[in-house]
Amino acid sequence: MDGNILLWIQDHFRWEGMNWFWKGITSLGNGGWFWIVLCILMVVLAKISGEKCSIKNENCFRAVIGRAGWYGLLSMGAGALITNVCLKNLVARPRPYEVVEGLVPLIGKPTDYSFPSGHTCASFACALVLYRILPKKYGVPAVILASLIAFSRLYVGVHYPTDVLGGMFVGIFSSCLVLWIGKKRTKK
């Protein structure tokens, strides 16, 4: 069924005029670079901000932006360990273009295993942290971008739908874990 969904996307949803867009969206998730740069910029912005306040202060821009950046990085790190070190090697699922006859990937063929999607994991791990910590006017676009990156992995033909769902669940778990640990630490 996973393969049939990908073939349906390829046959009914792919459009030559939009391929550049989806290739660009999927590249934002390569190695989590977009999210990593965003989080580092947030940490740097918090560091250079002249505002003096405690990291525990929920109303302080410096504390909120710094915490979001650090937690985003930690969440992506936890997700990467679970996804790339453990699950991909444990499940060892071949990429769909290696198995599904007629499926043509739109980007270079990744050489690692398929399940779960690392792009999706990193995107949701970071976006959900940002959604929970930052004002919604910043958090909602982050979740929308994570969703676009997740769908792009199907569009370009390098992941099964269940790979993307698996990556999303690992990202959700990683963000919840980091937020929970962070909440415990700030109560001390």
TrEMBL record:
Any keyword Ubl conjugation?
no
Keyword tags:
Membrane, Transmembrane, Transmembrane helix
The UniProt entry, under InterPro entries, shows:
PAP2/HPO, PAP2/HPO_sf
Top-level taxon of origin = Bacteria
The transmembrane residues are 32-49, 70-91, 113-131, 138-158, 164-182
Q: Which residues form the Phosphatidic acid phosphatase type 2/haloperoxidase domain?
A: 68-179
Q: What is this protein called?
A: Phosphatase PAP2 family protein
Per the UniProt entry, what species is this protein from, by scientific name?
Answer: Oliverpabstia intestinalis
